[in-house]
Design goal:
It contains 4 helices and 2 strands; from the N terminus they run ααβααβ. With 128 residues, it is mostly helical. α3 runs antiparallel to α4.
């Protein structure tokens, strides 16, 4: 059952990121200010579900040695997005810095997603 909830949360995170990014790019501030933070919260839930999923499936060590640094990097890059976003929202400054942080974060997410899917498809159900 965790597998289903993980993939639902993963899909909601992806959809939220697409909406938040598009809204930000189009300067739809109200939508962006709602979907950006909401997506980061759903991402946090997705990470928690991934941790639970790791208890139900056996992931190859070699795949996780590649995926985990990618996922952690993407997570750390989210902090830059949030901080520059708050600065931009409060002061109107730092738009370029925010965009750079967003682009780096999205690149990190793509790599983490690709390596995570690869690791998942190599995994097997854990013996009970």
């Amino acid at each position: 059952m965790i597998t289903t909830w993980f993939w639902v949360s993963f899909a909601v995170t992806g959809a939220g990121a697409a909406v938040a990014t598009t809204a930000g790019w189009r300067r739809q501030r109200r939508l962006h200010l709602w979907t950006g933070p909401s997506t980061l919260l759903v991402l946090f839930v997705t990470v928690l579900l991934a941790e639970r999923l790791a208890g139900e499936r056996e992931f190859p060590d070699y795949a996780m040695r590649i995926h985990l640094p990618c996922a952690k990097t993407a997570g750390l890059l989210a902090i830059g997005v949030a901080l520059t976003g708050v600065v931009l929202w409060r002061s109107g400054r730092g738009r370029v810095a925010h965009r750079v942080c967003v682009l780096l974060f999205l690149l990190g997410v793509v790599v983490a997603t690709a390596t995570g899917c690869w690791a998942f498809f190599l995994s097997v159900p854990a013996p009970h």
